[in-house]
Amino acid sequence: EPEVTQTPSHQVTQMGQEVILRCVPISNHLYFYWYRQILGQKVEFLVSFYNNEISEKSEIFDDQFSVERPDGSNFTLKIRSTKLEDSAMYFCASSGALRRSYEQYFGPGTRLTVT
Amino acid sequence: GDSVTQMEGPVTLSEEAFLTINCTYTATGYPSLFWYVQYPGEGLQLLLKATKADDKGSNKGFEATYRKETTSFHLEKGSVQVSDSAVYFCALSPRANQAGTALIFGKGTTLSVSS
Question: Which residues of B32-50 are buried (b: 16+ CB within 10 A; e: fewer)?
Fold first, then answer.
């Protein structure tokens, strides 16, 4: 069964460093998403992406975040200058575009630790 | 804004016990409601959904009914198994049947079932 994959599973970085989290969505999906979960808190929406553009973003997704689909398979989240409060589990998801195909399929997550 | 509140965990049960995990929501308009499950080391998986009032979603013995009058979507299972041990997330989509819409999640409830 097709699945969303994410790499790495765990990333440790120092405050101020740039990180890139990678995701491979399901191959025929057209919408891509990033969510995050700070330990003990809710899963929060960051951004959705369609047709090489951001379609929706939350207040969390400020100028230090960016997303890209650099090729036909990968979808990345870049954090330019990490802060301690960026430590969280980051989930990638993808969905189709046809009616009845809106279900979002999630990857296993990348745990980001900023020290 | 729209939000989801679910009961705090952890929930600890013996095998074959009855399970209820409470979920209530706040939304303007007519959201779709979901339960996602996360097994250890895996991504969020859609467990069941309901798209309009009085709909009952069901899957793998789990059920939840969309109650507009009480703004609730409680998850139930008549007889839990050890393999049901996981984290359960209640979520809503503010704009039903529209691709690319952000999901709004509750904090998640950890279920631990012992034999």
Answer: bbbbbbbeeeebbbbbbbb
Express each pLDDT in B28-76 by its tens digit.
888 999 999 989 878 889 999 998 899 999 999 999 999 999 999 999 9
At residue A87, the 3 state secondary structure works out as coil
Return d(Cα A25, Cα B18) in angstroms, integer. Answer: 36
Q: How far apart are CA B31 and CA B46, in angstroms?
A: 16
CB A87 within 8 A of CB A14: no
Burial class (CB in 10 A: 0-12, 13-18, 19+), B7: middle
Instruction: Find out whether A11 and A20 touch, Cβ atoms under 8 Å.
Output: no
Contact A56 B98 (CB under 8 A): no
Please report residues of A whose CB lies closer than 8 A to that of B98: 102
**Cα–Cα distance, A75 to A77 (Å, whole number):** 7
Determine, for residues B97 and A41 on separate chains, whether the beta-carbon distance falls below 8 Å. Answer: no
Angle at A92 between CA A86 and CA A31, to 5 degrees: 130
CB A43 within 8 A of CB A106: no
Half-sphere exposure of A49 (CA within 13 A, CB side): 24
Count of Cβ atoms closer than 10 Å to residue A24 Cβ: 16
Distance CA B9, CA B109 (A): 5
